[in-house]
Design a protein that fits this description.
2 domains; Arc Repressor Mutant, subunit A; single chain; 8 helices; Rossmann fold; five-stranded antiparallel beta sheet; alpha/beta
Length: about 240
């Protein structure tokens, strides 16, 4: 299922801009223009993440955040025109997970939403991904090649999960860095290439004759689309639940 995002913003132009970019990324979007309506939509629809403006009519963003945190740990990204450190600190104290300062790049907001969803263990699609003899369990954070469990670092796991979930799609280096390391990551693409090399070594994937991850020259990487993928939510290919 696509993530359901509740956008709480009283400026119609900004709300429409955010909605457009999130829907273009395949996300479901609900919108509210004041704090009271936001709480009504939150209680009725149980969104996966809130994009929450601080300066709202009826109930401000801090109060909305406080009330949501009384009943839920849903991820919250604060959206504000204020740059003072005190406001950011106050937002975190009320329970916000991240913040974006206006004016903002829609691409940055999308990247932050995906990063926060990943940290909160939200996953689009099935719990298990399989390609040939490679199995990935999103919930248990486990990877098998055949019967052998592969020990991956968190970044290596996130890279593999992202590539497998978008099988056949070339993903540029910038997008991989943004979605795995975060929008403001200061390192260069060398960091990504090193992690890809180590991931290939652990999987036993020859970069000259790749079985899983191939290089798309001038762009980035992709998970090969000629590897049969099985997305199975009913069985447990990695956890082997019920096995003797």
């Amino acid at each position: 299922m696509a993530p359901r995002i509740l956008v709480i913003e009283d400026d119609p132009a900004i709300s429409e801009l955010i909605t457009y970019h999130l829907q273009r990324e395949g996300m479901q979007v609900l919108t509210a223009a004041d704090g009271r309506r936001a709480l009504e939509l939150f209680n009725a629809n149980h969104p996966d993440l809130l994009v929450l403006d601080l300066m709202l009519p009826v109930l401000d963003g801090f109060e909305v955040c406080r009330r949501v945190r009384q009943v839920s740990d849903v991820p919250i990204i604060m959206l504000t025109a204020k740059e003072q450190e005190a406001d950011r600190i106050k937002g975190f104290e009320y329970g916000a997970d991240d913040y974006v300062t206006k004016p903002f790049s829609p691409k940055e907001l999308v990247a932050r939403i995906r990063a926060v969803l990943r940290r909160s263990n939200y996953h689009e699609g099935p719990a298990h991904l399989s390609a040939g003899d490679l199995s990935l369990d999103r919930r248990r954070h486990r990877v098998l090649v055949g019967e052998r469990e592969i020990e991956l670092t968190p970044k290596e796991f996130d890279l593999l999960e992202l590539l497998m979930s978008r099988r056949g799609e070339p993903i540029d280096r910038e997008t991989l860095l943004e979605e795995v390391w975060g929008y403001q990551f200061a390192g260069g693409t060398r960091t990504l290439d090193v992690h890809i090399r180590r991931l290939r070594q652990k999987l036993g994937d020859d970069p000259q004759r790749p079985k899983y991850i191939e290089t798309v020259h001038g762009i980035g990487y992709r998970f090969k689309d000629d590897v049969p993928i099985v997305n199975d939510q009913e069985t447990d290919p990695v956890g082997k639940e019920g096995a003797p």
